[in-house]
Amino acid sequence: MDSLQGGKAYGFLKSQQEDKLSSINEAFLSDPQYAEEEDLASKLEMFKKKYMEFDLNDKGEIDIMGLKRMLEKLGLAKTHLELKKMMSEVVGGTSKDTISYNDFLDMMLGKRNAILKLILMFEGMGKEQEQKDAGPPSRKTFSDLP
């Protein structure tokens, strides 16, 4: 196994990571605390994909650079201080420099409204909206101007 090529090693690492996150999803699916959650399995699958996309250190955690990249991709660049504040909201005020998948799921499924949760939910709603608005835009008139 020690002679893996870069791409194969990366793929192996990602599949190991996905297995680990899937087992965490299984635990959330059997957790009575989330039994009332609508479409829990599909939500967990979506959260897993989103989480893996921004786990840049490939350690199964999102660090500050991963969070920065996530928000930049959404068109919401933040300062280092804002990122640290968002991170502490997600992990419950502790001074950790990474967001674990459990922290991420607790934030997305929990009652606490972290800024990051609102941003990700808003982004999800925006995507649904984009799909509905297929076709040419409506014709604008002078009365439409602000």
TrEMBL record:
GO BP term, example: actin filament bundle assembly
GO molecular function: actin filament binding; calcium ion binding
Residues annotated as domain EF-hand: 42-77
Membrane topology: Peripheral membrane protein
Pfam families per record: AIF-1 (PF21008)
Listed PROSITE patterns: EF_HAND_2
Region annotated Disordered, chain positions: 127-146
GO CC aspect terms: actin filament; phagocytic cup; ruffle membrane
UniProt superkingdom: Eukaryota
Keyword Iron appears in the UniProt entry: no
SUPFAM superfamilies: EF-hand
Subcellular location: Cell projection, Phagocytic cup; Cell projection, Ruffle membrane; Cytoplasm, Cytoskeleton
Record-linked Gene3D superfamilies: EF-hand (1.10.238.10)
Chief localisation class: other
Presence of keyword Translocase: no
Keyword annotations of the record: Acetylation, Calcium, Cell membrane, Cell projection, Cytoplasm, Cytoskeleton, Membrane, Metal-binding, Phosphoprotein, Repeat
PANTHER family: ALLOGRAFT INFLAMMATORY FACTOR 1, ALLOGRAFT INFLAMMATORY FACTOR-1
Name the record gives this protein: Allograft inflammatory factor 1
Source organism (scientific name): Seriola lalandi dorsalis
